[in-house]
């Protein structure tokens, strides 16, 4: 080996060592932001876009994640920077979910571009190849919106209600099939009034619940909306239902986060703003019982953080994981908050994440006797069909039994020469088919990204 070549190799090794040391001594620390997205795919939470509190475009470009497969402390999170492979322009107030054929793609819809950047309507990030692309989507013509919440069901359909289009607040429903890549427009009959920065939660295989939000006809006459009424969108029936709540109803608010409790029977909301003011700590956390539509303030222990809004919240294991937002001091409260919601009798604010098996919540309907619920006719149809099959089998078995009995009696009456007496015939019992009983277990409810911008 020549002396020159040896020198080059040594220099290359020194450079690699310097890069490694520098990455360890200067780890990536994301800037505080609001209006971002937070998407759980496998064991990672991916963060994209948003606006930082000093109003630069740095946060709008950043793309990063952290692992939730093992324990961590919110004061010492190991962030992984993917900004160098990000091809999405700087933006905020978009909607994102996981979807696609293998359910491992991040789908980003809409949003507001920074500094007149040009964005496509939808982007996808393949977490297996770590690459961005712009999908070709067919179907209905749809518009670009922002300040809305994306909800994806277990069939890969993304539901996008309301939000803003060129400053106008809407109440339409757009539906993107992330598997077939087709657009469809849902029903707006009996839909909630126009709103953006609302709360939305996927509560079962059939329903999405919407609550709160903000409405304005101009930039100076906006109003935060009441949580006294909540709204269900029936994804199967493509129709809307309204329910009136009672109890300790939260103050009117927007820009809060909402998640489904681990028992599948409660909606938990945190934070938000009212008339452009941050909420007091005692007015930040509420629970809505989906069985009787009653609001309450849960018992909470641990160090209670200050309120924030325009943040994100996801459920991972037994925790409500709240990320970033506006209105908090990052020198006092962590960018990531953890609320242990495993015990309905007492929630716990904590800094320590301890992974455990996800608790699977049972599905909840708006109420069991809802006349518009399509689950009832389906259940009736299954029951009737099962009864018809069972009765047919019973009648078939009965006639087969009679036929064999008649045949046997005829054989007894006309024995063949040399045969034994008819008392020596052994008649086996005819087996009547029994109905198979299926025990339908609770279906896993995908994790969903339960907050908005």
Task: Give a brief rundown of this model.
The protein is an alpha+beta fold and 453 residues long. The chain is built from 3 helices and 39 strands.
Largest sheet: 5 strands, mixed
**Tally of contiguous helical segments:** 3
Percentage of residues in strands: 25-35%
CATH topology: Neuraminidase
- Given as residue ranges, the uncertain stretches (5+ residues, pLDDT < 50) are 15-24, 368-401, 405-453
Q: What do we call the CATH homologous superfamily? A: Kelch-type beta propeller
| CA-based shape | globular
Oligomeric state of the chains in view: single chain
Radius of gyration: 29 Å
Secondary structure: number of strands: 39
Average the pLDDT over all residues and give the rounded result. Answer: 81
Distance between the termini: 60 Å
Please identify, by name, the CATH architecture: 6 Propeller
What would you note in describing this structure?
This protein is of the alpha+beta class and about 450 residues long. It has a single domain, classed as Kelch-type beta propeller (Neuraminidase, 6 Propeller), CATH 2.120.10. Helix content is about 15%, strand content about 30%. The chain is built from 3 helices and 39 strands. The protein has a 5-stranded mixed β-sheet, with no helix packed on it. A 5-stranded mixed β-sheet has the order 27-33-32-29-28, with no helix packed on it. A 5-stranded mixed β-sheet has the order 34-38-37-36-35, with no helix packed on it. The chain is globular. The termini are far apart. The C terminus is likely disordered.
Essential attributes:
15% helix; Neuraminidase; 3 helices; transmembrane helix; 453 residues; 4164_t:CDS:1; membrane; alpha+beta; signal
